[in-house]
Amino acid sequence: MSELETNLDLANNYLQRFKDKPTGHFIAGKMEVPAGAVTYTNTTPCDQSSLGEVVRGTAADIDRACNAAEAAFADWRDMPGAERKKLLHHFADKIVERAEEIALVEAMDCGQAIRFMKQAAVRGAANFRFFADKAPESRNGLALHQEEHTNFTLRTPIGPVGIITPWNTPFMLSTWKIAPALAAGCTIVHKPAELTPLSAMLLAEIAKDAGIPDGVWNTVNGFGEDAGKALTEHPAIKAVALVGETATGSHLMRQGADTLKRMHFELGGKNPVIVFDDADFDRALDAVVFMIYSLNGQRCTSSSRLLIQSGIKDKFIAALQERVANLRVGHPLDPQTEVGPLVHQGHFEKVMSYMDVAKEDGATILVGGTRREDLGNGNYVAPTLFTEANNSMRVAREEIFGPVLTTIEFTTEEQALEIANDSDYGLTAYIWTESNGRAMRMARNIETGMLWVNSENNRNLPSPFGGIKMSGIGRDGGDYSFDFYMETKNVCIAHGTHRVPVLGR
Ligand code: NAD
């Protein structure tokens, strides 16, 4: 039996229960399929076959979940931080126990290759452990001294919050958003992406199993326009954290206006990787390939625009061409696979439409540009490399969100900066140069929330993660997450020495 066949067997065993009966919601500690619920079919991008029916949540379901989160809030808020820490570590242990199941279910549901997904549980657990350790200090504030007064700040959890997640790496992103909310003392209502609901249900099961009190964690499945919308409009919900498309961020802003929701947005990107003539060629090449073709290019921080300096352009593109043509596209459960199928047929068609856009714009399709017909009915795109592009082309301006790289030549540092910044987006940038001075100048002037110098995207949980411009509002990571999920109160204490103003004496 090949490793693929073994993985398929295991995956089918784990997936069978989702096929046997509809997947519903997790509300107030109970798994439920509401009476008369409408369902939709969840398919796998490997071959479009069904992974089972999923309940399309309604405003009434959201209402029950929000009320449960509200009812559970006071006790969770008042639980000592050390106890929340223990519970969240216990939760992380339980994630690790189910690592194999999480990896296989996730890969079949969203099409990400198992070589990346097998770390999903470990990374998800790490997110929980990091914020668990911070739970006891979450209320800490500042002391701000004046001559005759002392101010101090303290923080309290904002209340029940909504967490809305996308389909690209659903498990990882759910843990990344939920862990700080719970550590801060907020209760949550999670609305996972409709295209990839399964790992969110595993998380909900683990929450119950780990002893997270009923109502602290609620999950409602369904679509953005009904369940998602109702969540953002619900008066019990004090803040909403969204990871998704830029257009969705705009919808949420409008939907949350009447209840003045605090919003945190992690949105799209068209991230430049700038490779200068003096770069370490081989390391830069590895990173450029990794940062657009790993995770099927369905990654917010993917470097989808390569800005390449004229001196090394021909050599770099030739090396890139060879690498991209060599990428192993295949079934996500095959350990050899580097690029799997795109999450859904609709998304696959969107990505494929950019092949025509590139031709119309006048770019060259050096590698790929086609569907991988040989791989059957799945959403398999041949990894694609566009060259001879310029920054005004749609393939350089729009987020394609697939294994597709657009290459643009530049000559000077100033020009590289101008092209990099000429974008509606501002999530992250990557630069490759041996010059510290240039790295510092770019760091100062680049219009993004993050910059990696001589590195691919490297995870550091205390660091701020997030974008500017149309890529988002707010930062995740470390204490930045607590700032979002908590209110800061200032307390000012007089020393008894200052002159109180006197009126009407
Ligand atoms: P999407 O915006 O279509 O959906 C994200 C979530 O929002 C889903 O759960 C969806 O149901 C919900 N939603 C949609 N409309 C809604 C509405 N009106 N009200 C409430 N909820 C609504 O995004 P997607 O296609 O699932 O994910 C891909 C996008 O996510 C890409 O643009 C990608 O760049 C972005 N992303 C960003 C980051 C980041 O950190 N910046 C990370 C991962 C993905």
UniProtKB/TrEMBL annotation:
The entry's keywords: NAD, Oxidoreductase
GO BP term, pick one: 4-hydroxyphenylacetate catabolic process
Protein name, UniProt field: 5-carboxymethyl-2-hydroxymuconate semialdehyde dehydrogenase
Domain of life of the source: Bacteria
Active site: 266
Molecular function GO terms recorded: 5-carboxymethyl-2-hydroxymuconic-semialdehyde dehydrogenase activity
Gene3D superfamilies the record matches: Aldehyde Dehydrogenase, Chain A, domain 1, Aldehyde Dehydrogenase, Chain A, domain 2
Primary gene name: hpaE
Source species: SAR86 cluster bacterium
Domain named Aldehyde dehydrogenase: residues: 39-491
UniProt record similarity statement: Belongs to the aldehyde dehydrogenase family.
Annotated TM spans: none
